[in-house]
Amino acid sequence: MYGQTLNLYGVVGRKAASVAGFEYSEDLRKSGIVWNEVTIDKFITAPKKLFPGTRMELPGVEDEKTRRGIIRFLGSLSQKSRKYSFAECQIMKLHKRVGMTR
What span, in angstroms and rounded, lies between the C-alpha atoms of 90 and 67? Predict the structure, then answer.
């Protein structure tokens, strides 16, 4: 059902389509936007309206209060507060178990 996902730590203030190794839609790559409260709000309101070729499966979030909460949450995910993903934690556990260091 779901395809590729993107780590959203540090998304606020980041140029769209700038994370290496992620397959962005052409529309997003060519947009030149920087994610901020306004651009995120427009995107999550109606992703396919803002970027018709987007691969984002989210149909849109109509409720303004919900969108504000999402944007506030994304703003809290700075690179400084970044937590490790589940996969990264599993790799670190494996490295520790076999005596490897990162």
Answer: 32
Query: Domain 26-97: which topology?
Result: Cytochrome Bc1 Complex; Chain D, domain 2 (1.10.760)
Q: For 31-64, what is each residue's pLDDT tens digit?
A: 999 999 999 999 999 999 999 988 888 889 999 9
- Domain segments of the chain: what residues? 26-97
Q: Cα(first)–Cα(last) distance of the chain, in Å? A: 33
Two tokens, residue 64: 């303004």
Distances (CA, A) of 60 to 11, 72, 78, 93: 18, 17, 24, 37
DSSP lists the bridge partners of residue 34 as 15
- Element housing 83 (H / E): none
Higher pLDDT, 56 or 98: 56
pTM reported for the whole predicted model: 0.71
Give the sign of the dihedral formed by CA 54, CA 49, CA 66, CA 1: negative
